[in-house]
Amino acid sequence: MVLNGIDSITNYRYLFEGKRVGLITAPTGLTKDFASTITILHENFNLAAMFSPEHGVRGDLDAGAVVDTYMDPFTNVPVYSLYRKDSKRLTKEMLNEVDIIVYDIQDVGVRYYTFIYTMLYALEDCANAGVEFVVLDRVNPLNGVTVEGNVLKPGFKSFVGNYELAVRYGLTAGEVATMANDQMNWNASLHVVRLEGWERSMSFPDTGLTWVHPSLGIPRYETALLYTGTCLFEGTNCSEGRGTTFPFEMIGAPFIQAQQLADEMNAKGIPGVFFRPVHFKPTSSKHCGELCGGVQIYITDLQVLRPLEVGVTLLFTIRDLYEQFSFLPPVKEGSRPFIDLLGGDNMYRTDNIQAKQLLEQFAAESKQFAEITQQYHLYR
User: Fold this and answer.
1) CB 158 within 8 Å of CB 341
2) I need a surface site. Which of 78, 208, 321, 341 has the fewest CB within 10 A?
């Protein structure tokens, strides 16, 4: 049986007893029996404060919504925002409320997913303030072996990529924290409450755990896997499937001919997937209420699937087929186009570049990244 960190917390009581405990969590902060990490810390220790990432500690906020400070109605514990308009950092005033901060959020193992940066920002802030930091580790649902994609370049940092990780980085949150603490010389007082029973080769279906969606855009394990590649469409004028029942599994736009795109993609023979022509009307986000043609991506073989290859190939196929395709402009003046922030480089917008060239470059970078990060593995 695989146990996440919270399931073993009784073996680590010495870390929390007699201390004012702060908690960074989300709805995925649960034991295998669905007991909330909030409740466990509140009932067994002195839970003095909570810190809210994107979506809120109880998941009641939309993606990108600014979080305000409030009192949690169930525990009467103050909740401070780590997703403010002006900052995503712990302040000195927040840190004065606690002696130790605990992080417990299920990640998806992909660089674009923002929770990992909430953790790293907090780890750095705790290091500077001399506050202890604990990661209640959780499985990497995409496994701890497969690494895909380029490594983020320093000039392209943002909240969808703020550390030099590969796109699919093959590490647990505890391992990322351990690596960053060492590489950045933060020297934080870091503790990782380790997983039990997890092996690096395990994907989520192998763990026996129940999938709890880490955000509304990732309802299924299969979504998380495909998100590795299809999140790139957030930087384009194509719908990434938000506002449908299959976000990141359906890609389309009003200008796309569904059957043509499906035939083109299936003809490429990409291992592990099949593309079905679909038509859909998003109820929110891009092309809301408009009829879109596109494809739904079906996973046919988990073992051979490389989702970043799927996303990159699909993106460039649409670019080459439809002159209406475009990358979105920067959200605000002076910033980079969103595709650059997701890509960790401006390579996607390079003239005449093809998917094959990018994927060859990615393979070299991901291999090097995997070799460097082996020293931070906490599990075999």
Assistant:
1) yes
2) 208
